[in-house]
Amino acid sequence: MSDGATPSKPNRRHDLPRGEAVYRALRRAIIEQALRPGDKLPEDVIGERFGVSRTIVRGVLGRLHAEGLVELKLNRGATVARPSLEEACDIFEVRRSLERDVVRRLVGRVTPRQIALLEAHVAREGEARARGAAESIRLAGEFHILLAELSGNAVIARYINELVSRCSLILALYGRPHSPDCAVNEHLEIVAALRSGDAGKAIAVMEHHLDAVTERALLASARTPQRDIRAILDAYAP
Amino acid sequence: MSDGATPSKPNRRHDLPRGEAVYRALRRAIIEQALRPGDKLPEDVIGERFGVSRTIVRGVLGRLHAEGLVELKLNRGATVARPSLEEACDIFEVRRSLERDVVRRLVGRVTPRQIALLEAHVAREGEARARGAAESIRLAGEFHILLAELSGNAVIARYINELVSRCSLILALYGRPHSPDCAVNEHLEIVAALRSGDAGKAIAVMEHHLDAVTERALLASARTPQRDIRAILDAYAP
DNA sequence: AAGGCAGTAATTGTATACAATTATAGATCA
DNA sequence: TGATCTATAATTGTATACAATTACTGCCTT
């Protein structure tokens, strides 16, 4: 494989801890559902593809495991995580709590500059809708992450980031295929409510939105509870 | 150093992924404040002490970093984390949200078996109070962790675990030295309120307790805002 | 032909070796 | 004396080598 992976700059002082690029790439691939829940993540393959050693890959997989995006089984390697339906419910429940706090913190304190940021993001969501589902899914999630970051509480931001990312997995497992979990207009409503300064309304709008998101994400769960063969055969056997 | 570290069983199939013991030991040492915020954590020293290679230690430190207990600086190694005052406030704010949810979930649904578990734990807290501060601090935190686990939401449990652990760091930095952050009788009140089945009261008791915890943890923050030399010299310079 | 079993290949877990960076100590010079 | 620079030591970042476990293929047995 020689040097195909790092051609441009032979040995420029790497500003980032070597594995950062691998981390971001894997994370994005998972969130955009290019890597689907259950997919195997062999250390050799990933390492060769990015031109790093297994040491680095292993660190990245551990980090993704800590964030709940990857499962690690002893001596059996890493796979993209497959959250159970129960975990999915837990995740949405915590999201509701924390995102309520986000709105509560932002309302009345949000600056015009921040509103502009949010509106710009929603605009990008609108543009991306034509370009494909993968990017839409990612941007929809990033709206909630941006909101959490603007709230000014770093702990909430980190947790929301984790939870929203894992919602991509849930959507891939239990939702309608290739549909983003958030509607652009619902995001616009949230921004509008924040700007209005009406705390009660803003919270209500956010909760309504999260109800809708939950609904969409768990929609197909009645049809395909798991990727379970027995459940599928039930429809064909007498 | 030969074989002093792993004497009893030469090569028995290690049930646990090699680093688990190191992780637990370091975690406990940090939580019990044997390792204090800012203390250096050299890979060599830790590895030799536990009879594992730096590879393992590095993985453990990364994991502790993901949990917010350890800081990693590029090329400068790991230190026990020193949460800023702002981070401390963020942490307590999220704790309030999540622990309110815990109580809300438990109240009315808690079984006698679970009540017994909680009471047994509080009893151990009482016994430990005589034995020393370190164990008391840990047990006080573990009461909240147990509560979160009993709530049945695994995500909440994981986050509470993280947040409560980090509170040990906050207490070490800004609180009165060597004092546990929770009073045993306050924990008893929480259990009593849960058993009563009165949701409003249970939530109120928990919030009151968390207020008190926050108060105690951030008490000394006026006296020693940081381990900052300038602030100390202010009292002596004209 | 189906199932089980051995031997081999592939993959992961851990340790060590090497490279790069940072910290330390000693020497030099003003 | 004090500061700066340099050489050396200590520590971290990364890659590779080896050991252990798991997966697979083909053969053998019934």
UniProtKB/TrEMBL annotation, chains A, B:
Pfam family, one: GntR
Residue ranges occupied by any HTH gntR-type domain in the UniProt entry: 16-83
Keywords: DNA-binding, Transcription, Transcription regulation
Source organism, top-level taxon: Bacteria
CDD domains: WHTH_GntR (cd07377)
InterPro entries the UniProt entry points to: GntR_C, TF_FadR/GntR_C, Tscrpt_reg_HTH_GntR, WH-like_DNA-bd_sf, WH_DNA-bd_sf
Gene3D superfamilies, alphabetized: GntR ligand-binding domain-like, Winged helix-like DNA-binding domain superfamily/Winged helix DNA-binding domain
Protein name, per record: GntR family transcriptional regulator
Organism: Chelatococcus albus
